[in-house]
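Q: Got a minute? One more chain.
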Amino acid sequence: MPYHQQPYTLSSTTTEHKRPSKIFLIRHARPLVSKKGFFSASDARAFISDYDAAAVEEFVMRHEAIPYQEIKQVYCSTLLRSQLTAQAIFGEDVELIVRHEFREFERKIFSLPLLKLPIRFWLLSARALWMLGFNSKGIETFHQAKARARECAALLAQEAGTQQTVILVAHGLLNNFIRWYLQDMGWKSSLHEGSGFLGVTVLEKQTA
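A: Always. Here it is, folded:
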């Protein structure tokens, strides 16, 4: 009697491999505000206000890691530079999900009468004092800002569980803390270009 062996099909014993979920963290483009010259404390406060209200310089960005055709919505902050950058990268038709949680960490210029100094001095000194627990009266503390960044990371991770690819166009310091908290949650950094203007970070994780 002839023997007929049943054909073996690989698909019957294996399942399709699912792509890992990805979270993209992108810093905004360079705002159109001048840093040249020397600034008094009041000038430095005005600079921060101008920086938060400024448009961004024109740019063209076609990053090989970004799946442009898949992107229908982008998270961004309430600050103008975040929204303008998102629209410039992904086009006017993309849906911007604007959330206050994604704003940059706050900073407050301290009083130092009679002196005019480079704006970099004012900004770095204000940030350093704030991180040390000083110079936070009337604004979010460093502890509160870190808690907010952790909540942002959890929000993006939850969204990535259903959307698979999530984009945030936000700010340098906030993005760094979100990256660190996502890594604590098991996300792996597959690309990190730093926190400069238009820097891109990609984190990946196999989600259910």
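A: The beta strands are 21-27, 73-76, 95-98, 165-170, 188-192, 200-205.
Q: Perfect, thanks.
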